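[job 0417] fold request received: Protein GrpE
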Amino acid sequence: MSETKNNEELQHEETTEEVVETAETTETEEIAVDEKDQKIAELEAKLAEEDARYLRLRADYDNLARRTRLDREAAEKYRAQSLLTELLPVLDNLDRALQIEVTTEEAASLYKGVQMVYDQLLAATEKEGLSIIPAEGESFDPNFHQAVMQEQDSEKETGIILRELQKGYQLKDRVLRPSMVSVNE
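[job 0417] inference complete; emitting structure tokens
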């Protein structure tokens, strides 16, 4: 009987050990599952962060490419700006020379030559996009005109340009020099 009792005790101990081992295994498996879930969550968060970073970098690249293209287009569009700005005083001097009254035949000949040079220079600059800003008789626009005087003329409306003191020029849609004008009060 003692042997049976010992056998029963041994079986009971083995069963207890199995239950304890099973419980420990289950706990270990639960811990492993929790660690896996935590690892998956971390990896998903990291992936979402990298996706967002990629999208920001892609947007930055697209913006840089667009800005570079616009800068290149502007540089091409306004490539002649510095040269034309340097030629404005030459155009002014030729225009002043053409305002002189001619009385002799020699002066008329010289006048005709200056007029031809002026017209040729004006045509060449117009090919590059230079245009004269209209002033006299127009409404004053501070984007294109610079008022340096005010005069009184009761026959014209307020804000109308009475006289152009210096011609203004623009290159395509950019003002190189505003017209200096006298405006009606």
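[job 0417] notes: Residues 156 and 184 are 7 Å apart (CA to CA). The chain has a mean pLDDT of 85.
[job 0417] exit 0
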